[in-house]
Amino acid sequence: MALHRERPFAGRHAIVTGGGRGIGAAIAASLASRGAALSLLGRTAATLESAARRLRDEHGVQAGIAVVDIAAEASVAAAIAQCAAERGPAAILVNNAGIAPSAPFLKSDAKLWREVLDVDLMGAVHTARAVLPAMLEAGHGRIVNIASTAGITGMAYVTAYCAAKHALVGFTRALAIETARKGITVNAVCPGYTETDIVGAALANITAKTGRSREEALQSLVAHNPQARLVRPEEVAETVAWLCSDAAMSVTGQSIVVAGGELMP
Ligand code: NAP
Question: Is 193 a catalytic residue?
Answer without folding.
Answer: no
